[in-house]
Amino acid sequence: MPNLQVTDCSSLFAPRLPHRPPLTTLPHSRFIAKAASLQQQQQQPHLHSASPPSIVNRRHLISQAASLSLSLTTLSTLPLPAKSEEVLSEWERVVLPIDPGVVLLDIAFVPDDLNHGFLLGTRQTILETKDGGNTWVPRSIPSAEDEDFNYRFNSISFKGKEGWIVGKPAILLYTSDAGESWERIPLSAQLPGDMVYIKATGEKSAEMVTDQGAIYVTSNRGYNWRAAVQETVSATLNRTVSSGISGASYYTGTFNTVNRSPDGRYVAVSSRGNFYLTWEPGQPFWQPHNRAIARRIQNMGWRADGGLWLLVRGGGLFLSKGTGITEDFEEVPVQSRGFGILDVGYRSEDEAWAAGGSGVLLRTTNGGKSWIRDKAADNIAANLYSVKFINDKKGFVLAVIIHTRCSTILAILYSWFTLLSWW
C-alpha cells in the first residue's frame, strides 16, 4: 500500500446547482454543441427572469432569441431551422451515449493529441473521443470494474502521455500511453476523505486533493504520497475561530468548491459559503479569509492574470483588486437575469466565459471589466455549471438538462477568424 501521511485539505466539485422543484419529464436529449463559425446577429428582445435568485423558473426555460441559427432545446424532436445571413453561430450537435441521471464532472485531452480526450461522470461513466470531441463512445477500464462498486469519477488530468483519474469510492487510475491502457494504483484505507481532484505535474508526478482538504504529492507513479499540508482544515479553524473568521464554527469539514492556479495555489469555499480559504506551496496549513460581501459565496477561482474571481449566490460576480491572494473585491455588473452564475473559465487574460443556471452564458473581452450575454445557450433548458478551456482555441461547458436531469456538453471550437468577427 502507498505510504500516505494523514492530513486534511480540499475538493474540486462542480459548483452546487440551484435547487429546483421536479419538472415533467420531456423527451431525453443529450448532445454536444460545437460552434463552427460566429457571425453578427440582429438584436431582438428577450425575456428577463423575475424568478428569485438561483431558482429555475419553468416559464423562462424557452428563450425568444429567434436569430439563432439552430434551436438547441432538443435533439431528435425538432427540425433544424434554415440558415440565414443573420446568424449568431452554427451548431453541430452530437448525441452523448449516457443514461439519464448521469452528471458529467470533468473533461481532459491528451496534450500530444488534442483530438484524443476523455469525459468523466457519475455512475462509472467514462467517455472517449478521438476526433476532438465531435463524437464520444463509452470506455471500459477492466481494472475499475472488478469490484461491486459504482464509481463516481471526479477528476482527470494529463501531462504528456501520462494521465490520472481519481474517483469515489477511493480509486486511482494511471496511464503512461495516453489512455490506451489504465493501471489501477492501490491506495491506503487510511486516506482521509474521498479523492475529488488530481493534477498531473510532471513525469510520474501528480498532486491529489481529498474532500476533507488533504493535499498529497507523488513523484513515483502514485506508489508513495507525501502530505503537502501539515494541519487539518478543522484544526486550523479551531485555532483561528478567535481571530474573527466569521462562520468558522459552522464548518462541516468539507469544501464546497476548490480551484487550483497554474502555479499550484488553491482557493476553496467553505461548505456554507460564509468564508474562503487559500493555500500556497510551502505553507503548513490553509489560511482562512473573511468574505467582504453580504451574500454567501458560490464559487471562486483564478483569473488568467493571477487574480481571483468570486461568485455569490444569486448571480453576483466580483473580481479581486490586483493579482494574488487578497480580501479586497469589487463587483462587476452582469446580465445573469436573476439566475446564479456557477463557474468562470478564462481563455486568455482578456477573454473569459461565465456560465450559470437556465442557460446563462456570459462573455468578456476586457479581462472581466464588462460582460455581454451570449445567446448561444438560451434555447437549452439546462444549468451550465462548469467551464473548461483545453487551449486558446477549444473550450467546453458542462451542463445538466433540467427536464430530464441528464448531462450535456456545449463545446466551442475557435479559430482566429471567428475571434475577430464575433463583435
Which characteristics define this entry?
mainly beta; 5-stranded mixed beta sheet; 2 helices; 38% strand; globular; disordered C terminus; photosynthesis; PSII_CF48-like_dom; Photosynthesis system II assembly factor Ycf48/Hcf136-like domain-containing protein; WD40/YVTN_repeat-like_dom_sf; photosystem ii
Structural features, described:
There is one protein chain. The protein has 423 residues and is mainly beta. The strands form 7 sheets. It has a 5-stranded mixed β-sheet. The chain is globular and about 50 Å long.
Structure summarized in a few sentences:
The chain is mostly beta strands and 423 residues long.
Portion in helices = under 10%
- Overall shape: it is globular
Which stretches are low in confidence, meaning pLDDT under 50 for 5 or more residues running? 1-92, 413-423
Overall pLDDT metric? 75
Q: What is the strand and helix layout of this fold?
A:
Layout: E1 32-38, E2 89-94, E3 104-110, E4 113-121, E5 125-129, E6 137-138, E7 152-159, E8 162-168, E9 171-175, E10 183-184, E11 195-202, E12 205-210, E13 215-218, E14 226-227, H1 233-240, E15 255-260, E16 266-270, E17 275-279, E18 287-290, E19 297-302, E20 308-312, E21 316-320, E22 329-332, E23 341-346, E24 352-356, E25 361-364, E26 372-373, E27 382-391, E28 394-401, E29 407-413, H2 416-421
Parallel strand pairs: 1-29
Antiparallel strand pairs: 1-2, 3-4, 4-5, 5-6, 7-8, 8-9, 9-10, 11-12, 12-13, 13-14, 15-16, 16-17, 17-18, 19-20, 20-21, 21-22, 23-24, 24-25, 25-26, 27-28, 28-29
